[in-house]
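Q: How would the structure tokens look for this protein?
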Amino acid sequence: MELSKDQRKSILTIKNYLNVNGNLKYTDAYMMVKFELAIEEIIESSLAIKSMKTTGIKSKSDGVQSVTFESNIEAWTITDSIRGLLPMPYVRLMG
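A: Here is the predicted structure in token form.
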């Protein structure tokens, strides 16, 4: 199965969030099955954010209409709605 670039970005974002990089269990195929809803949500929200927001811009105006973005909302990040679709991240121990 060939993954799209957006699916690969979503999978990498989730792996980073869960702290599972390097864990052989978390293959792309496993991620597509296990976290399908989260992957779709990341893609949808990221494309919507990218269509509205230019990187580094916090607000923009067009005539009488003004839009202000939350400072922590960027494309390809884990938002609260996506976090609800994922398990808790694994804790890495130092030592």
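Strands lie at 59-62, 65-68.

The first strand starts at residue 59 and ends at 62.

Upvote if useful.
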